[in-house]
Amino acid sequence: MVLAILLSALAMTLIVGVRYLIVSGGFAWATRVRHPGLYAGLDRQMRREIGWSLASAAIYGVPAGIVAWGWRNLGWTLIYTDVSAYPIWWLPLSILLYLFAHDSWFYWTHRWMHRPRLFRIAHAVHHDSRPPTAWAAMSFHPIEALTGAVVIPTLVFLIPIQVGALGFVLGIMTVMGVTNHMGWEVFPRVMWRGPLGNWLITASHHQRHHEHYGCNYGLYFRFWDRVCGTDRGIGDFTRAHGRAAARVGAAPGGGAAASGGLAGGDA
Description:
mainly alpha; 12 helices; 267 residues; two-stranded parallel ribbon; single chain; globular
């Protein structure tokens, strides 16, 4: 039994790590296509982000693997496979409940991480990414990674969810974690400039957190930021893109031609 649990934890660690490499790598490639030079001069930073993120993958993967083993073998958790086991309206509602619960946990632990001592000990690792890149989504100190690793494994014991819906939640968690750190907007303008953007968080909102620190703590929704007075609206990428252009220009062989792909930010 112990061996089976260890293998499950290892398998989940590999899944989390490979998922990170594929998604972050895909969006990093998209960044190079859409904004050539945006990550110029950040190679050392990106290697550091990948290192911390792969360490975080193990911290996320171990509890997830243990819970997955318990679900398959001992019937742990409230995860179910038969869609008809609950009313069909529960499917979207359970997804929203998971996202809101995760967002709430993230908001308050994130604010906690910004207390001076905890920031120095742990959260500074994440903010060492200046500017953040698509590789920074899981670039956490182990203490911070632990606070994130317990959320979903805890929720599956508290809120029933269909296994496919859980996969959808994990997909949103991965995509939003990466795209919020890309340094440009991958989503349509109507999503983050329109009425929907008043409540949903995308890169423009999170970029302001990385610039000013003491605001915009949420992950998916702006609800807690608005309620608690920590919402400073959305920013733009003019400064970040300007700095990238300067890095390109300062590099050997750099210049106007190399930095031209940075002109005309998304925000």
